[in-house]
Amino acid sequence: MKTVFMGSPDFAVPSLEKLYKMGFDIAGVVTQPDRPKGRGKKLLPTPVKIFAQSAGLKIFQPEKIKTPEFIRLLRNLSPQVIVVVAFGQLLSPELLQIPQFGCINVHASLLPKYRGAAPIHRAVINGEKVTGVTTMYMDEGLDTGDMILSQELPVEKQDTVGMVHDRLAVLGAEVLERTLQLVDDGEAPRQKQQDSSATYAPLLTKADEIINWHSSAREICNHIRGMNPWPGTCTYLDGQVIKIWQATYGKRLVDAIGLPGQVMASDAGGIIIQAGQDQVCIKELQLQCCKRMMTADFLRGKQIPEGRCLGD
């Protein structure tokens, strides 16, 4: 089957690699343009571009895919199917109509839950015990197309969003392989989504990074897991940003109850913070312009006095 692949970040690479190893006729790989990154603002390619270059695939990097020029180019490639995995731009109705077998998307949730741009983050932040991937025929809506296949993935209590992301990327490639085999055989199912059951996973904002100490300790720890390793959660002390990377929680970790955000105790085992319900034990944190540190190492250089309130 002649295919065009559209994707950009790390999550999309296993799917492209799967197509390549399956021997698909990949007519082109469409990915986002190189962007300036890091302190030096050096132009860097997307992970998908890096793999495509290593595989000798033809690469296209349009700023916008809705232009007549790009649609003409894509039409000339004559793909039978377009595979879209975390591409980063919405496809126009005109583009959706080009391939014979449609545009197939790999989405990192069990649709119709978590439609949108940040399904993995939101699932972990919300404390989901199960997430998964769904393949679907794309339409003009945001992750609203008819579903083809889905598969669940358990989320463990200590999983970070990075861990779940990596497992879902591999699972997505496996589900994509089965999906394309069904499409090629003319046996792919189509199941309409139940819009009444839909939930949404909007892009993360700076406000999402800030810990709300009035939340329960469980919610705070889920929040921390759901933002590790990117973009991280933070709190404030004396106007200074402190990033929190790892924490546990318990009903009463010390024999006292304080105000939300109040430091109850600190030692090499962790910094105990009162939450709106129960208590949080910070295990790993980071000051601005410093590296991530376990609490024992952090406390050798800086003390956070008991009784102080984080978030000030």
TrEMBL record:
Role played: Attaches a formyl group to the free amino group of methionyl-tRNA(fMet). The formyl group appears to play a dual role in the initiator identity of N-formylmethionyl-tRNA by promoting its recognition by IF2 and preventing the misappropriation of this tRNA by the elongation apparatus.
Family label: Belongs to the Fmt family.
Keywords from the named record: Protein biosynthesis, Transferase
Database matches in HAMAP family: Formyl_trans (MF_00182)
Lineage, broadest ranks: Bacteria, Bacillati, Bacillota, Clostridia, Eubacteriales
Formyl transferase C-terminal domain residues: 204-302
Domain Formyl transferase N-terminal: start-end pairs: 1-179
InterPro entries the record matches: Fmt (IPR005794), Formyl_trans_C (IPR005793), Formyl_transf_N (IPR002376), Formyl_transf_N_sf (IPR036477), Formyl_transferase-like_C_sf (IPR011034), GART_AS (IPR001555), Met-tRNA-FMT_C (IPR044135), Met-tRNA-FMT_N (IPR041711)
Protein biosynthesis among keywords: yes
Chain positions recorded as (6S)-5,6,7,8-tetrahydrofolate binding sites: 109-112
EC numbers on record: 2.1.2.9
Origin species: Desulfofarcimen acetoxidans (strain ATCC 49208 / DSM 771 / KCTC 5769 / VKM B-1644 / 5575) (Desulfotomaculum acetoxidans)
Enzyme class: transferase
Keyword Iron: no
Entry-linked Pfam families: Formyl_trans_C, Formyl_trans_N
Name used for this protein in its record: Methionyl-tRNA formyltransferase
GO cellular component: cytosol
Name of the encoding gene: fmt
PROSITE patterns: GART
Reactions catalysed, as given in the entry: L-methionyl-tRNA(fMet) + (6R)-10-formyltetrahydrofolate = N-formyl-L-methionyl-tRNA(fMet) + (6S)-5,6,7,8-tetrahydrofolate + H(+)
GO molecular function, one term: methionyl-tRNA formyltransferase activity
